[in-house]
Amino acid sequence: MRHALIFFFLFSLNVSFAADPLPSWNAGPAKDAIINYVKCATNDGCPLYVPPKERIAVFDNDGTLWSEQPAYFQLLFALDRVRALADQHPEWKTEQPFKAVLENDYKSIAASGKAGLLKIMAVTHSGMTTDEFENTVRNWMKTARHPEKQVPYTSLVFQPMLELLDFLRANGFKTYIVSGGGIDFLRVWAEDVYGIPPEQVIGSSIKVKLEQRDGKPVLVRQAEINFIDDKEGKPVGIHRFIGRVPVIAFGNSDGDLQMLQWTDRRENTLKVLVHHTDAKREYAYDRNSHMGRLNKALQEGKEKGWTIIDMQRDWKRIYPKPAKD
Amino acid sequence: MRHALIFFFLFSLNVSFAADPLPSWNAGPAKDAIINYVKCATNDGCPLYVPPKERIAVFDNDGTLWSEQPAYFQLLFALDRVRALADQHPEWKTEQPFKAVLENDYKSIAASGKAGLLKIMAVTHSGMTTDEFENTVRNWMKTARHPEKQVPYTSLVFQPMLELLDFLRANGFKTYIVSGGGIDFLRVWAEDVYGIPPEQVIGSSIKVKLEQRDGKPVLVRQAEINFIDDKEGKPVGIHRFIGRVPVIAFGNSDGDLQMLQWTDRRENTLKVLVHHTDAKREYAYDRNSHMGRLNKALQEGKEKGWTIIDMQRDWKRIYPKPAKD
After folding, report:
1. Is residue A320 one of the residues assigned to a domain?
2. For residues A63-91, average pLDDT
3. For A82-92, what is each residue's pLDDT tens digit?
4. What is the CATH number of the domain that holds A266?
5. Which InterPro entries match (chains A, B) (predicted)?
6. Residue B51 and residue B135 share a domain
7. Long-range CB contacts (< 8 A, 24+ apart) of A299-307?
8. Which of A80, A204, A260, B304 matches a 20 to 30 Å C-alpha distance to B22?
9. Which residues of A touch B210 (CB under 8 A)?
10. Average confidence (pLDDT) over B309-316
11. What pLDDT is stored for residue A13 in this prediction?
12. CA angle B166, B233, B171 (to 5 degrees)
């Protein structure tokens, strides 16, 4: 009798999962659009059918797969690195923009502009081997906490999107990240957190140089930009890394507009924007935000009938439940 | 009775295939090294075991997966394109290196050096959209013939390597091309010919620019080099595109040495060189060849105990059997 009950329980769980692959999504037009698209794309008799090898789905990262407020998390990583390296750089006590970082003077950091940002990125992202950089990112991810939510950054990924990634992969889609963020920053944790392997992560990069150290080859990160995978760079990155036009594209900002337009070259594709409308559970912002500004893309998405996710309306929960011990 | 015979025949075929996944390879140290490596890498109890997601195998293309004499096939494509475009460029009749190409004056083409080559590459590889370039390559592949062997270029792939690619994929390895050749040239046919999808092709590239034409986004190929995926560029390309160190690497020239050394950073990897020793069935060349020079890598491979394929000794056949009607 007890076994029969357990069996019945497992069976009903299984059925409900099969019936709803996106349990953290509320019923509504966004969920319907996604499920209907995938059902048809994987059904050989359907007009939207997509052969398995063309099932490429691309996702922006910041603001699409995880939060991006109060600033891109990679920028917060860079600021933490300046603090961690300050002992080795006594000159930073008087030199901008480092002085501002060490004094938590965010107004002056912002005022230092692009030139200041590039200085911060250069000292925190170059000069070391790729192995050393990976270790630094890995350790930071373990120990750092989000300044407002006081939780590890990797717990600020969107639960509905994790379910979606699984759902797409279960239906034969290859899931890619196409991010303006750094490719080598993302790859350290994307496989554990999203199930997306390094070879399916596309991002911005700096140049690297092959050198010999202790008789072994290493790649040393150079203070020179190689590629910016944002705006018009996203179709370029997709072409260069994947060499096929995707059939599904998810973004959340004007930086993703060209990626969605590029996907729209093909017929029968799914273009989706995540609209941050939930000030209570996450953040609410669009056309006036410094991070993840969503203006032109929202306008064009509405005109062209792209799917627009209203986070407050469409998502039952935002973040994964904390793991229990 | 007839059915029983057919059944028996199919069964025995099946068994012999299972027994020998590399039927075009002669028994010997190269074949043994490959099969033993794969057996152990896929056996959880073996000291060389490699978890599935780390099973990355990289292959040079020219001279490793197909022939590269009397010149890299992409160079022969470029010369054919100069001839095809000559009507639109009457000035080429007097302008070098185009005059030399149109007069089949290979000595003068060679004498035009790197500057001449870049001029030829610029007019044949840039100025068009990526779609247009793909169509041009696709049409050329269908109609062009190798100047000496008088067969389509895609029939000059190495049958033993096709079997190897299948064998590795059947054992959970992801097979990648890492070529000094052009990524967009390779991707057009690599999937049909090698079973390697565009997203697993790494190669040299020129810059592309996003433009709008007839209200649709296109990428226009620019006459500016973006990345040279050769020599010290190969570890850079592998890092940038794959983000993992491979466990298997195949090359045939000094241009592959850094890729094999990069693979050698990891313990328990398989490094293989294809040595072109068969003047009768293919070509014989190494340290004195202008295309695919093999000198330093052969020396280092011997010293370090890498596997060296002697094409004459190790390969039962070189090219696939022609398809029968």
Report:
1. no
2. 97
3. 999 999 999 99
4. 3.40.50.1000
5. HAD-like_SerB, HAD-like_sf, HAD_sf
6. no
7. A300/A257, A300/A261, A301/A260, A301/A271, A301/A273, A304/A264, A304/A271, A306/A260, A306/A271, A306/A272, A306/A273, A307/A29, A307/A30, A307/A33, A307/A34, A307/A270, A307/A271, A307/A272, A307/A273
8. B304
9. 232, 235-236, 258
10. 98
11. 42
12. 20
Is A201 or A324 the better-scoring residue by pLDDT? A201
The Cβ of residue B197 has, within 10 Å, a number of other Cβ atoms equal to 20
Q: Is residue B14 part of a domain?
A: no
Tell whether the model's pLDDT for residue A285 goes beyond 60: yes
Q: What is the pLDDT of residues A54-65, one digit of tens each?
A: 999 999 999 999
Q: Is the ipTM of this complex over 0.90?
A: yes
CA distances from A31 to A27, A34, A97, A263, B121 (A): 6, 5, 45, 20, 49
Residues of chain B in contact with residue A208, where contact means CB-CB under 8 angstroms, are 236, 239-240
Q: pLDDT confidence of B15, banded at 50, 70, 90?
A: very low
**Residues of chain A contacting residue B169, judged by C-beta atoms under 8 Å apart:** none
Chain A hits for B241, Cβ within 8 Å: 199, 241
> What length is written for chain A?
325
Q: Which pLDDT score, from 0 to 100, does residue A14 have?
A: 40
Query: Could you tell me if A170 and A293 lie in one domain?
Result: yes
A130: contact with B, CB 8 A cutoff:
yes
Could you tell me which residues come within 8 angstroms of residue A258 by beta carbon, excluding any fewer than 6 positions away? A231, A232, A234, A235, B210, B217
List pLDDT tens digits, range A252-261: 999 999 999 9
Chain B residue with minimum CA distance to A54: B197
Backbone angles phi, psi at A148, to 5 degrees: -100, -45
Q: Name A66's Cβ contacts closer than 8 Å, sequence gap at least 6.
A: A73, A153, A154, A156, A157, A158
Average pLDDT over residues A174-202: 98
Helix (H) or strand (E) holding B270: strand B270-275
Q: How many residues does chain B have?
A: 325
Position B18 pLDDT exceeds 80: no
Rounded to whole angstroms, the Cα distance separating A168 from B325 reads 41
Candidates A186, A194, A199, A262: best to mutate against B (most CBs of B within 10 A) is A199
Domain that holds residue B83: 73-143
The domain boundary, picked from A143, A160, A182, lies at A143
Least confident of B18-27, B128-137, B225-234, B262-271: B18-27
Contact A258 B217 (CB under 8 A): yes
Restricting to B residues 59-78, those with a Cβ less than 8 Å away from any Cβ of A are: none
pLDDT at residue A17, as a whole number: 44
Residues A231 and A161 in one domain: yes
Q: What is the pLDDT of residues B71-120, one digit of tens each?
A: 999 999 999 999 999 999 999 999 999 999 999 999 999 899 999 999 99
* Alpha helix segments (H runs only) across chain B: 2-19, 29-41, 73-85, 98-102, 106-111, 113-125, 130-143, 159-170, 183-194, 233-241, 257-263, 296-304, 311-314
d(CA B28, CA B30): 6
pLDDT on residue A290:
87
